[in-house]
Amino acid sequence: MSLVNLGKKIFIFSAIVLSVSNPTYANDALKIAILSDQNNSGFIDSSSDMTMNLINRKGDVVTRKLRFKRLEVPGDGDKSIAVFESPRDVKGVAILSYAHKVKSDDQWLYLPALKRVKRIASKNKSGPFLGSEFSFEDFSFQEVEKYEYKFIGEEDYLNLKCFIIERTPIDPYSGYTKQLVWIDQENYLIHKIHLFDRKSFHLKTQKFEEYKLYEGFFWQPHKVEMINHQNGKSSILLFENVKLNSGFTDRDFTQNSLKRSR
Amino acid sequence: MFYKFLGISISFLCPALNAEIIGEYSFDNRYFFNSGLQGQEKNHSSFTLSPEIFLEKENSIFHFKPKFRKDNIDTERNLVDVQELYLINILEDKEIKYGVSKEFWGVTETTHRVDIINQTDAVESLDGEDKLGQPMVKLSFEENWGLLDFYALLGFRERTFSGYEGRLRQTMIVDSDRPHYLSAAKNKRMDFALRWSNYFDQLEVAISHFSGTSREPRFIVSNKNLKELVPLYEVIDQTGFEFQYLLGSLAIKSEIISRSGQEDRFTAATYGFEYTQVGIFGSRLDLGWIVEANHDDRLPSSPAVIGTRLTINDTSDTQILSGIIYDEKSEELGFLLEASSRLGICCSISIEGFYFDDTNEDNEEFKLFQAYKEDDFLRFELTYYLGD
Prior knowledge:
The structure holds two protein chains of two kinds. Chain A is of the alpha+beta class. Chain A is built from four helices and 13 strands. Chain A has helices at residues 3-19, 24-38, 136-139, 255-259, and strands spanning 45-55, 61-71, 79-86, 94-98, 106-111, 116-120, 147-157, 160-169, 176-184, 190-197, 202-214, 218-228, 234-244. In chain A, 36% of the residues are buried. In chain B, 3% of the residues lie in helices and 56% in strands. Chain B contains one helix and 22 strands. Chain B has one helix at residues 2-13, and strands at residues 18-32, 43-57, 60-71, 79-90, 94-101, 134-143, 146-154, 173-174, 180-181, 190-200, 203-213, 218-221, 228-233, 235-247, 250-261, 263-277, 286-296, 304-311, 319-327, 332-343, 347-358, 377-386. The longest helix of chain B is centred in the first third of the chain and has 12 residues, at 2-13. The radius of gyration of chain B is 22 Å and the shape is globular. Chains A and B meet through strand 6 of A and loops of B.
């Protein structure tokens, strides 16, 4: 069964479940989302090396490398810096982001050739990230407050008992009308997301694999795959050297630190 | 491979030090459709090499980047420059940079009014974005109230000008070997600058002041050769203001300067907007619009620019920038095209074109592009990246 067909079947299935849902389910969905989010918080700071493989329809692979670090901000979204390592012509290009729970994120781009820091409109987040199938939006942090939730049902996925919840982005500039999220019932980890574009078409499927537990509470997927059903391309994000609690402070996430972050 | 080996060797010899060596080697060819107004050649090519060394230790960074350029026709376009040779010390509440470096100020895209720390390498390209390294000591504070930079600028770099054989030059040649300074200290004068910037939600602001030798010279006729000009570098005071407001996908921008020291105090400004349409016609292409107008008290009129930036969002990061420059008073028109893409993992290519058109030759207003009227060109550049 192709993924598109699977997507369609699930969509039909969810539509049936939805029609019999009652208001308490919305509450359950939010609870599941909050429990799931807790797997990815309390880490204080983290850093990792990322490899992104862009795979076209013919199977040709192009590779990008990035370094990434982030800092939790109590009561608000995370601060992060992503630095491009390769391809060589964009080496040293870096993005500083201050994510916010509800209002739009603040982002600055550093261009080393001009030594220029440029504030960028975070509203343009539905566009592709580095020519990949990930958009800037897929790449940013999924704060609980950024969506509205609906409980859809339960399903076994990869031998795991999963909840399926539907989340609708609150931001009108989001590239998606809704997302179906598979969350396992044991650790509340996200395993799969179906992403529906503005025409409510099941455009992409995102899979989270190779979860590892750090410090007994922080779950990090080491492989995230994004499959685009429309163009047949996919992108795979691999994480290495994941470190927690390196002692970063706000001073490591400023414009000056962006300029020297290469 | 060799560079990677050298980098690893440095790291090995001094384990606390993180070393990296990279670089660029580029070939560029400019083809002018006509011979120059002074009979210059149609085909000009040059090679540029700029290796880079970074050494990093906890709380210190060393960066060295020389730049070498060899032109096959215009010897004035040959260059040996230290772009970066500095040490940064990161302290608890501040950052100190000592040495030669480049610093960019500003928010607009087509003209950079406020940007003043570095001298322009004017023969490199038309956009004026290529700079020469500036010796400095910079002290930088970043707190909740914003980013505050103090600069002591040690010595002055002269602007580069095309020689007799060069293209895209003024009708009279500029003798850059005998510049005239108003300060008795000549090019040894110590200049000062400071800039404060901050952001408030969607608003970015910066205020800056520069006191020192003007990077932009005026010209006087040479007393040795009446057919030549000599650059006159005066001592100026320039206050700059930058403003950018984000409204969804729209960025509204403005840069204003007020300068004294070159006859009467004058004001110059660039203002406009940048608007990005993500995924045009349901595709993955992004289309950005750049509209900027200019004002300069010194000129009878200033041209406006309308440009588009098409981002293909392919794996080669292909971008096509095109623009139209129009001056209402002189009725002059310029077309600009800039396309760039990556070739494999080692290289990138870019193609640039410029076409000037005087739409009304009977118009007797001051012509901005008069000297460039035979200089329509197409430029091809291939860049090879050194290192792994």
